[in-house]
Structures are given as C-alpha cells and as structure tokens.
Amino acid sequence: MIHLTVCKPGDAGVWAQALQAALGAGFAVSAWEDGAPPADYAVVWKPSAAFFAQQTQLKALFAAGAGVDGLLALKPPAHIPLIRLEDAGMGVQMAEYVLHALLRWFRRFDRYAEQAARAEWQPLAPERKADWPVGLLGYGALGQPVAQALRALGFPVQAWVRSARPADIPLFAGPDQLPAFLRRSRVLVAMVPLTPETARLLNAERLALLPQGAYLINVARGGLVDEAALLAALDSGHLAGAALDVCTPEPAPPEHPFWKHPKVALTPHISAATLREESIQQISAKLQALLRGEAVSGVVGAGGY
C-alpha cells in the first residue's frame, strides 16, 4: 500500500478524496493532521513547519501550484525531490490576463475611460501591432500559451530565458542578452520564478532599458520588481502603465501605493488559479510514473526552477 498525504490548508480533505479516486486501489490517501503517521509521498501547499519535522520518510513532494518559492523558503529536506505543477490549466488563464491588460492599452480603453469620465467623445488614432512588441521574461510551460495567444492576434513576441535552447519565437538567453531583450520590449511580461538570482531583477537600471512609454505586466512574483524603482519610472513617465497581479507584501496593505496610483492596475494574485481537476490528473500521472521508475518533468532544481 502506497501512503499519500495532503497538507493543504482549507481543502486538504477534498484533494485527498479526489486523489484517492484518481489513483484507485493500492493507494491510501489522507489529509494530513498533526501527529499523522509517516507517508510515502505528499501533496503540499503552505505546509506548517511541523509537517516536515514529522514526515521523515517522504520519497517525493508534489507542490499544488506552479510557484514554489514559498515552499522552498521552508527548507524542505534537500534529498526529497520537489515536483511542481506544470500548466494544469494555468497557462490559458495567464494568457487571458495578459491579453486583457495588453488590449486595454493597445486599444486605448484606459484613455477612453478617462474621456468618458469627462463626457468627452473623441475617437483616437488606431495603433499598429508591429509597434507593440511583447517580451516574455521567462518562457516555460506557462509562457508558451501566453505567446501563442499573443501571436494569434498578430503581436510580435520574444522571450528571455536563462540559457539558449530551440524555440518557436525569438529567444534572448543569459545575462548578457537581457539588456537587448529589454530594449526591444514595449510590453514586458514578468513570468520567471522568484529565486535568489531573480529577486529584484527588474531594478531601476533594467527598467530604464525599456523603451520610453513601455508597460509592465507582472503575473509571477512581486519580489521580481524593485517597487520603488517601478513607481519612480511610472511617475517620471518612462513607463506608461503597469498591470500587477502580485506585489510585496501580499495581501497588499491599504497604504500600499499601488492601490491608488493612476497608472497601476492591481489584482489580488488571481491571474492563474490552481484548477483542482487538472492538477489532480497531473499529480496522479506523475506519481504513477515515479512508481514505474520513470523520469518526470517539473522537478525543481537547486536554483528554484
């Protein structure tokens, strides 16, 4: 019997039942409680410190989400493979979010809202999509559906990644090519994981490399951005706007300047919700592959990727 435990505040019982139904006979799945016996595998999201102290026989750990920076901050045992969700329905949601933000600026809906508040009827000249190149800062499982959606509407798309690899869009790779990538991105979409190497990656120096009047969309982590530098770039006019699904800290306190800044649209980390059914299917398939001795994708390395 393979024992799987679920440590996920709020709905661990629901996930445990769904995983049991997906895995079937030969598996015993339960919601973790303090003092529970050791399990072989675990599905976790925001586990307590007691969880790792008590679960000392785990063979692998499945994150119930794509971002694992919060989980890594708890310092799970290094010998236990950590496997994150890949897409599981989140890519399409992120594409929707990015398209909404981009089209609001491209089609001047923000300007038309200002005009409507003044009861002003004034059509604006249309924009050319060729003048709106979109740069994806990160091009993994979630970035690819975003690129596909953007390209389907005719926007030029490029991406920056840590190391060179074949791709279906122009890629810039490594630190040396980051400046050129930023200079060519009128709309920058932050999608990289938050790691010690990417923390405050978008600082004043790099934001200044973006074209005059550029825009920022952040659907990754607030810690990627130097928020004081972002506000300064917006106030100076170098950046024309920002659509932010994340910030530091979260939840954003009432006094956070993003709430009232006229060039910022802030949402409460909703660009890509974890879809239970799709996630259960992916975790179940990967667990069964591991038990067959097969390699699985989504294993997080030492750098947080």
Automatic annotation (TrEMBL):
What is a single molecular function from GO for this protein? glyoxylate reductase (NADPH) activity
**InterPro entries associated with the record:** D-isomer_DH_CS, D-isomer_DH_NAD-bd, NAD(P)-bd_dom_sf
UniProt entry keywords in alphabetical sequence: NAD, Oxidoreductase, Pyruvate
A Pfam short name: 2-Hacid_dh_C
D-isomer specific 2-hydroxyacid dehydrogenase NAD-binding domain residues are 101-271
EC number(s) reported in the record: 1.1.1.79, 1.1.1.81
Q: What is this protein called?
A: Glyoxylate/hydroxypyruvate reductase A
Q: Which organism is it from?
A: Inhella inkyongensis
